[in-house]
Amino acid sequence: MKKIFILGSTGSIGVNTLNVIRDYPDLFRVSGITANSNIDLLMEQVEEFKPEWVVISDKSAAKNFALRSSDKIEILEGEEGLITATKNADYDILLSALVGFAGLSPTIEGIKRRKRIALANKETLVVAGEFIMDLAKKYFSEIIPVDSEHSAIFQCLAGEKTSEVGKLILTASGGPFLENTFEDLKSVSVADALNHPNWDMGNKISIDSASMMNKGLEVIEAHWLFNLPKNQIDVVIHPQSIIHSMVEFVDGSIKAQLSKPDMKLPIIYALSYPNRLQNNYTQTDLCKISKLTFFEPDFRKFECLKIAFDVMQIGGTAPCIMNAANEIAVEMFLNEKIKFLDIPKVISESLDKIEKVSHPDIETIFECDRKTRELALTYN
Ligand code: NDP
Ligand code: MG
Fold first, then answer.
1. Per-residue DSSP letters for 339-350?
2. Nearest ligand, CA of residue 198?
3. 2-145 maps to CATH 3.40.50.720
């Protein structure tokens, strides 16, 4: 029986993880769950899964939860609560699925406790990839990707040597604006940007998918996770989202992982690895998929993807600046304070103005994130 602590149980990944756990009561048990403010859903989850640890990050939501809860369940609050819980709870796997920079600190606690990290929160590796991979090595903590592209690559690499990898090929659906022109993007609405063709995800990653920043974050995530340089990581547009990513080896052979898009698949693999569990989530009928197509991304239209490749090359705190500015820009776009095409502008401005540091320690990363947010908020 594996005990799972879910950071972000009320989110899209968190709910999918609980859907998986519900199907395997003899294999998995929920040890802890957390939410920011969605206490209605959290209350249902507490009732059903009876975790020992519950954290609510938003302090006023935590008070409301306590008022409404009939059980005598102890609730921890705020960022401190996330740290206390991940430091002390009894768990085997930390499913890291908060959104954004907020996921970094509690993930570090899981690594220090030598636990398996089932990593959905890609921002952790984007902002602090070098630090996190060194820490995981030091504490013998396994980082198993939940992001579908990285899970695909991880599966393709099984039994292979990294030295024989020619390149990683990350596939991208192209998001809701694949068929639009650059001109069209000037006037797209929030609803247009949230309307992803293949995946149902949280708001932040949906906007990142529309701008293709999501693929940019994933390129950096892959760079750290698989320890490969920029020139060995490619992105191809594959609108059907059936091939979740590929690895090309030095002999020219390409391995791919395929399935209909369903996040329960990479989640279950990260929980059960190195085993595979029988399930009925995804039946992929290849004959019903009439074609699989591939083409190059348009870096002019999707400037965020270009920025991410540049930033990976610069290294140091540059990805942290990009990430923080992007988080603020996405929030401003969702609140209709800026236009869609302002997102890359907020990021470029922050990258121009904030000093970059190479090989940053963790304090430097936190300071860089704070400073960048402050600056990005002044964009107009
Ligand atoms: P959601 O927005 O759906 O969920 C985020 C979760 O984190 C919720 O439980 C939310 O609580 C909580 N949360 C949000 N902000 C904070 C905060 N500041 N402090 C503490 N908790 C917070 O996100 P997703 O599930 O879509 O994504 C989670 C992560 O997984 C992201 O990093 C994303 O990039 C990655 N990912 C997601 C995929 C997907 O299919 N959704 C695919 C691959 C990767 P509340 O509900 O109360 O707001
Ligand atoms: Mg992905």
1. -TTHHHHHHHHH
2. 1
3. yes
